[in-house]
Amino acid sequence: MINPFSNIINQAKDKGVSRLFEHWLSQQLEPYGRLLGMTLDSKNKAIRMEVLLHGESESIRITIDNYSLVDQGDQTFLIAKKMTASRAWIGKVLDNFLIDRKLELPRQYAGMIKMVL
């Protein structure tokens, strides 16, 4: 049986880290568009985001369905194992350029993100 108190704690920590992660993602996406929203589900290792790309009139939804965090020396990396997008061609771009690639997390956020994720 799932402990409801445990679910509440997981949701609270996910919301807290989401804010840090959202700030970082916003900076990473700025050249391409604007992050409209993001949710983090650490229990299921999922990140969902909505992005409005420059020059587009409709937003897209991007989901990281499985991720891992890897430490190398004093750096921490996020590695996406599976990603999907609401537009097929963007899904292909994600597959070709982001799946299994190391995305370095900023050092000032890495410690807190690792505690939660």
Give the secondary structure arrangement, pairings included.
Elements: H1 4-29, E1 33-41, E2 46-53, E3 60-72, E4 75-85, H2 88-97, E5 102-105, H3 107-116
Antiparallel strand pairs: 1-2, 2-3, 3-4, 4-5
Helix pairs in contact: 1-3
User: Using only CA atoms, what is the Rg?
Assistant: 15 Å
What value does the average pLDDT take? Answer: 84
Q: What order do the strands of the largest sheet run in, or round the barrel if closed?
A: 1-2-3-4-5
Q: How many angstroms separate the termini?
A: 22 Å
Number of domains: 1
Give the helix proportion (percent range). Answer: 25-40%
* Outline: globular
Biggest sheet features: 5 strands, antiparallel
- Helical region count? 3
Low-confidence runs of at least 5 consecutive residues? none
Q: What's the order of the H and E elements?
A: HEEEEHEH
Given helix and strand content, the structural type is alpha+beta
Report the strand count.
Answer: 5
Strand content: 35-45%
Structural overview:
- The protein is of the alpha+beta class and 117 residues long.
- The chain has one domain (4-116).
- Helix content is 39%, strand content 38%.
- The protein has helices spanning 4-29, 88-97, 107-116, and strands at residues 33-41, 46-53, 60-72, 75-85, 102-105.
- Strands 1-2-3-4-5 form a 5-stranded antiparallel beta sheet.
- The longest helix is centred in the N-terminal third of the chain and has 26 residues, at 4-29.
- It is globular and about 40 Å long.
- The two termini are 22 Å apart.
- The model has no long low-confidence stretch (mean pLDDT 84).
